[in-house]
Write a structure and sequence with these properties.
By secondary structure, this protein is mainly alpha-helical. The protein is built from 12 helices and no strands.
Length: 327
């Protein structure tokens, strides 16, 4: 290189905005955030009919048994009465909810991992995975809970429950109208967070168990000497983790749905507290009442969690890979 001041120094190539964008989205936490959103939308759409049927099963009680039937008959009843839209009822709102929910969940999990890693990039113990997953679950549900309660209302309002009445089923409000009506007539801002306590009580252990089980099973399925298992093994790990986590925490999901319609006209349960709800459910419906809807739930767990984890890892690896292409 010449030291002559008259000779201009070689010009440095300006960094393009496209390069800066790729460097940003390839950061592990940011990539996990984007991948989590994509994973949520894919997984919920795949199992939308089973998700709605699960909710209809969950809110049934003594004297309200219009959907007391098998999964197959329940799906046929929705198809016969409401067509394709009935099978997908509430999925739009659920996707709007689940994209930020999953993005925050996966992103915050990777964020919290940084604080408990013995060394950067080191494997976490099962207990630390459980703690990070639980914290991620609380974070994500707090951010997106109003959309969850609206999604439950939308799933129910067109169902053939006698308590709703024929007129109510013909005039169905959309997502924003439902939000406004709840805010005006059911207690203001707090109405949008009704049922948040049993939700958090169930989500924290659910997400914690999900992450802990998935990463443990994933590690078990990874062949010795390799960093990643095959796509099929990732699917299997996702299915196992989802089944374990949801079975262990399912009663909290039933309580969440019951509290979300606690003040809904014609369907409200009027529970005073979580313990009051548990006592009434067990007294009137037996212990099985806490597991209503578990069959369609387990049927959807495998395709839902498997597609969620697979799409998450594929999307995350794509974004992370952008960095290596330009460095």
């Amino acid at each position: 290189m010449s030291l002559d001041p008259r000779v201009p120094a070689p010009a440095t190539r300006p960094i393009s905005k496209g390069f800066q964008l790729r460097q940003t989205v390839s950061q592990p936490v940011f990539a996990a955030f984007l991948a989590g959103g994509a994973a949520g939308a894919v997984s919920r759409t795949v199992v939308s009919p089973l998700e709605r049927l699960k909710i209809l099963f969950q809110i049934q009680s003594v004297g309200r048994e219009e959907y007391k039937m098998s999964v197959g008959k329940g799906l046929m009843k929705m198809w016969r009465e409401e067509g394709w839209r009935g099978l997908m009822r509430g999925n739009g709102t659920n996707c709007i909810r689940i994209v930020p929910y999953s993005a925050v969940q996966f992103g915050s999990y990777n964020f919290y991992k940084r604080f408990v890693e013995p060394t950067p990039g080191a494997d976490l113990s099962a207990l630390r995975r459980l703690a990070c997953g639980g914290a991620a679950g609380i974070t994500s549900v707090t951010f997106t809970y109003p959309l969850d309660i609206v999604r439950t209302r939308l799933s129910i309002q067109s169902a053939s429950f006698a308590a709703l009445g024929e007129a109510a089923r013909k005039k169905l409000p959309g997502m924003w109208v439902t939000v406004v009506q709840m805010y005006k007539h059911e207690g203001g801002f707090l109405a949008l967070y009704r049922g948040i306590i049993p939700t958090v009580a169930g989500v924290a252990p659910y997400v914690g168990l999900n992450f802990m089980t998935y990463e443990s099973v994933r590690k078990y399925f990874t062949p010795e000497g390799e960093n990643n298992p095959t796509a099929v093994r990732k699917l299997a790990a996702g299915a196992v983790s989802g089944a374990v986590a949801q079975t262990c925490t399912y009663p909290f999901d039933v309580l969440r749905r019951r509290f979300q319609i606690n003040t809904m006209s014609g369907l409200g349960y009027q529970y005073k507290s979580i313990w009051d709800a548990i006592k009434i459910i067990v007294t009137q419906e037996g212990f099985r009442g806490l597991y209503k809807g578990i069959v369609p739930n387990l049927l959807k767990v495998a395709p839902s969690m498997a597609s969620s984890w697979l799409s998450f890892e594929m999307t995350r690896d794509f974004f992370v890979g952008l960095r290596s292409e330009d460095t």
